[in-house]
Specification:
about 60% helix, 4 strands
Length: about 140
């Protein structure tokens, strides 16, 4: 009877030890999987960033065609290729405007320089309020 109790206790201890080791292995595998997933995401992000970069020094023919389709015969002052965009500087309604095209020659956006006084009064008030709030926040 004594041997049976000792044998049962030994069996329980063995099962506990094996279970503890398997839990440790599972935890280590989970940590490894998380680390690999993070590294994979970082690598994928880097690859996407590299793919967005445009090659060459001149703007693409497709971007020029899309520019003329989007803005008609607006006179181009300069056109250049930056790291991620084909950029056209041109005059639009007497204002100097910049248009940005991505690698697929799709218009991403345009920008214009404006004087503060040219904005509507309500917009000027909103900008002033945001500036005051930001200035107070920095103190």
């Amino acid at each position: 009877m004594k041997k049976l109790i000792i044998l049962s206790a030994a069996a329980i201890m063995l099962v506990s030890a094996v279970n503890a080791q398997s839990e440790t292995l599972v935890k280590n595998e989970i940590k490894t999987a998380k680390t690999e997933k993070k590294e994979f995401k970082e690598e994928k992000k880097h690859e996407r960033k590299e793919l967005r970069k445009l090659e060459g020094k001149d703007v693409s023919y497709q971007a020029k065609e899309h520019f003329f389709h989007d803005f008609g015969n607006a006179p181009i002052i300069t056109s250049e290729r930056s790291l991620n965009f084909d950029e056209f500087i041109f005059t639009n309604d007497g204002r100097i405007t910049r248009a940005y095209y991505d690698a697929d020659a799709n218009l991403v956006g345009t920008t214009q320089m404006r004087k503060f006084s040219e904005f509507p009064e309500k917009t000027q008030q909103n900008i002033s309020n945001m500036y005051i709030l930001r200035k107070q926040h920095l103190k």
